[in-house]
Task: inverse folding
C-alpha cells in the first residue's frame, strides 16, 4: 500500500506499507515538518490499529527531514504498539 | 542575551500561524542557498527554524491566532543569524529536561531545544525566555 503526500515542496512525504509474514514494514520518505506532523502521526496510529503486530519496522532510510514534533509523531504510535523504532 | 534585533536587515511580524511562518523560513533558506551554504548548513538552519517557530507558536503564544511572532534575520557570506520573538510568558531553558535520559525517551519535552543546540553554533535566550537568537556560522 502506498500513500503519497504532497503538501508543498518543503513538506512532501511518502508512506509505504508492506507486510512480510508477521512483520509490518512502514517506509516513511521525504520531509516531515510542522505542517504534516499530525497527519503522519494519525496515519501511523491507523496502521497500528489496522495491522496489529508485535513486529513493526519503521524504515526511515529515505527520510530527508523530520522536526522534533515529527519525531514525537512517529514514536508515539510505535510505542503504543510495543514495537522498536529503527532508522 | 544582550542582542539588538534592529541590527538585522530583515524584520517580519506575522500572525501566530504556521503557514505564515513557512514563507519566512523559505526566504531564509533561499538566501542561504544564494550565499552558497553547504546542504548541511541549510539543513541545520531549516531544522532550527522549524523548532523555534513551533516553540513560539505552540508553547509561547499557545496557538493563539491573535498573537504574533516576530522574526528578524540576516544572511551574510559568513553566518546566518535569526531572532524569533513570541508574545508568551517565556520559559527557563535551564528547566527543560534532557530528552536523552532513558526514562524520558518517550516523552516529547526538550527534543526541539536539544536539536537546535546540536546543529547550531549558538542558541541564546533572553532572560524572560520569549526571544531566541539562532546563529549558524558558514562551515
Result:
Amino acid at each position: 500500500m502506498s500513500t503519497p503526500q504532497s503538501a508543498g515542496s518543503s513538506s512532501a512525504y511518502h508512506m509505504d506499507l508492506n507486510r512480510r509474514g508477521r512483520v509490518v514494514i512502514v517506509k516513511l520518505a521525504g520531509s516531515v515538518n510542522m505542517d504534516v506532523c499530525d497527519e503522519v502521526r494519525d496515519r501511523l496510529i491507523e496502521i497500528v490499529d489496522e495491522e496489529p503486530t508485535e513486529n513493526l519496522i519503521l524504515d526511515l532510510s529515505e527520510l530527508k527531514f523530520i522536526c522534533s514534533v515529527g519525531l514525537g509523531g512517529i514514536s508515539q504510535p510505535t510505542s503504543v504498539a510495543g514495537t522498536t523504532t529503527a532508522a | 542575551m544582550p542582542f539588538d534585533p534592529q541590527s538585522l536587515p530583515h524584520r517580519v511580524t506575522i500572525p501566530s500561524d504556521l503557514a505564515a511562518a513557512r514563507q519566512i523560513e523559505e526566504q531564509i533558506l533561499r538566501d542561504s542557498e544564494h550565499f552558497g551554504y553547504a546542504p548541511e548548513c541549510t539543513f541545520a538552519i531549516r531544522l532550527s527554524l522549524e523548532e523555534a517557530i513551533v516553540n513560539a507558536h505552540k508553547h509561547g503564544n499557545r496557538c493563539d491566532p491573535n498573537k504574533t511572532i516576530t522574526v528578524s534575520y540576516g544572511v551574510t557570506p559568513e553566518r546566518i543569524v535569526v531572532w524569533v520573538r513570541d508574545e508568551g510568558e517565556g520559559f527557563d531553558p535551564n528547566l527543560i529536561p534532557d530528552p536523552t535520559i532513558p526514562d524520558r525517551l518517550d516523552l516529547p519535552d526538550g527534543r526541539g531545544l536539544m536539536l537546535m543546540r546540536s546543529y547550531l553554533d549558538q542558541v541564546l535566550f533572553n532572560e524572560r525566555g520569549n526571544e531566541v537568537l539562532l546563529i549558524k556560522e558558514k562551515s
